Amino acid sequence: MLRIDIVTIFPEMFKGPFDVSILKKAQDKGLVEIKVYNLRDFTEDKHRTVDDYPYGGGSGMVMKPEPIFKAVRSLKKENSEVILLSPSGDLFNQKIAEELSKKNHLILICGRYEGVDERVKSIITREISIGDYVLTGGEIPAMVIVDAVVRLVPGVLGDPDSLREESFQWGILEYPQYTHPRDFEGMKVPDILLSGNHERIRRWRRKEALKKTFLKRPDLLEKTSLTQEDLELLEEIKKELREEV
Ligand code: SAM
């Protein structure tokens, strides 16, 4: 079972997202346990202070190290992954989500204000950013990470095949999906998907996935390992695109 502990000064923010759909079912099935802790419960002063002025001056407040150390020390077990959400962290992606889904215990520390005292870095095992932009706090990044990680925990998704085929799982973007109706306002489902020929459908989907990736995220193609068939399909795609212009 994966246990996730989240440390935040706004525990109430987590009420909705974890109480519906797949995240709720995963907890109900006992596949994951998610607990949210108020950082102020780890303070020792009457005002439950979690922030203070920065040494050296400057605007804004900085999160004090003591409550964070106390929280981590009381929650940490052997092999816990202690993650600080931070715009300076490793850029979160599907590979990191997979790595985290294999752990037993994650502690997510949500920053606020101008961030955390630098000495907090000495008790974390990993720093993660969810993108090159600055949010007001680490709570939404923590939700993003929990969502991406929990759905990878074995047993959480009803149909494990859906994981195998979706975007990024194979290093490229997913092929286009269609459902009923067959003709929607003149936009038709490609005939091949109605052909019943599984091999042709498989090849078409792979080609469409490669084409989408080639056009939208060519950087992904450089990082993934392509089969001989993929290389042939890519040649076909490039030829077709050249002919289109
Ligand atoms: N002064 C900090 C800086 O420039 O890096 C920004 C602090 S931000 C206003 C407050 C907190 O929000 C951060 O400590 C972090 O926990 C969280 N945060 C903001 N943007 C984030 C991002 N892109 N990824 C992960 N966490 C983020």
What does this structure look like?
This protein has 245 residues and is of the alpha/beta class. It folds into 2 domains: 2-150, SPOUT methyltransferase, trefoil knot domain (Alpha/beta knot); 162-244, tRNA(m1g37)methyltransferase, domain 2 (Trp Operon Repressor, Chain A), CATH 1.10.1270. 35% of the residues lie in helices and 17% in strands. The protein contains 8 helices and 9 strands. It has a 5-stranded parallel beta sheet with strand order 2-1-6-5-7, sandwiched between helices. Helix 3 links the parallel strand 5 and strand 6. Helix 3 packs across helix 4 and helix 6 (198-216) packs across helix 8 (228-244). The radius of gyration is 23 Å and the shape is elongated. It starts with a strand and ends with a helix. It binds S-adenosylmethionine (SAM). The site of S-adenosylmethionine has 20 residues, from strand 5.
Uncertain runs are none
As a percent range, the share of helical residues equals 25-40%
The hetero compounds bound to this protein are: S-adenosylmethionine
Query: Under the CATH scheme, which class of the largest domain?
Result: Alpha Beta
Sheet having the most strands: 5 strands, parallel
Summarize the structure.
The chain has 245 residues and is α/β, with parallel strands linked by helices.
List the helices and strands and how they pair.
Blueprint: E1 2-8, H1 21-28, E2 32-38, E3 51-52, E4 62-63, H2 65-75, E5 81-91, H3 94-101, E6 105-109, E7 126-129, H4 139-150, H5 161-165, E8 183-184, E9 187-188, H6 198-216, H7 218-223, H8 228-244
Parallel strand pairs: 1-2, 1-6, 5-6, 5-7
Antiparallel strand pairs: 3-4, 8-9
Helix pairs in contact: 3-4, 6-8
The structure holds S-adenosylmethionine (SAM).
